[in-house]
Amino acid sequence: MPSELTSNLEGYLGSLKARGRSERTLKTYRSILTRFIDYLAVNGLTPDRVTEQDIDRFMLELSKMGWDQNSLFTVAVAVRSFLKYLGRNVNYPLPKRPKMLPKYLTREELTRLLGACQDDYEKLIIGLLLTGVRVSELVNIRVSDIDIDKRSIRVVGKGYKERVVFFADWLVPLLKRYLRQNKSEWLFPSEINPDQHVHYVTVERILKKIVKRAGINKKVTPHTLRHTFATLSLASGLDIREIQELLGHSSLSSTQIYTHVDPQRLKQKTDEFYRSLFTPGW
Question: Core-binding (CB) domain: which residues (predicted)?
Fold first, then answer.
């Protein structure tokens, strides 16, 4: 990778970090843009000469390698943003993303998930992910951010925007017991260095083990629990704007994906409608 572009890439990623982009986003963008810079070098291109057709060919290469539409959308956003950082306003059109309903767990699956937790640590991870926080927000929670009496946590989200989320009352005794043993400023400190918080990948691995123990045969990530919180809280009567606030969405349109209909609830409501009409005698 050309040294000048390597320096530019580090500067760009530094600007994203300064704006509060998550560690995961930085890792994803680094991987994408390293590929893009290598593509430019192989084809004798420089950022000031790259065209929309060049980006098309780069996207096509990734598509042939099996990258899906959601991933290609992220690629287009990253490339366009990086070129803009370099002073090139290439108005590359973003590819369409398939509209997919958010994956979430049912109440029965949640019960199994919590039942499969082996200690307070695992229960806290599940319980706090069910407040709707992102995994990057979870690992960055400090003990000082928690107000046990109000059952609230101050969370710092994207763009360093602060918000408050609320946790379930059954977490209070677990949290008190856990905090008596925790000597770190972080709620979930790293085992290697307690002065740092645990890595989000560690949380993902822990969740994966709990899911396996619970016998849940579907892919469950921390974001699945965020989707679960939003979907079930909406079904329970929370207003869409209240959910927007709890999730930390800057735009209501981001929250509206959760207004999809729960198939089980739809069947229940349909059955109630049919019974309200008449009950046949046969």
Answer: 3-87
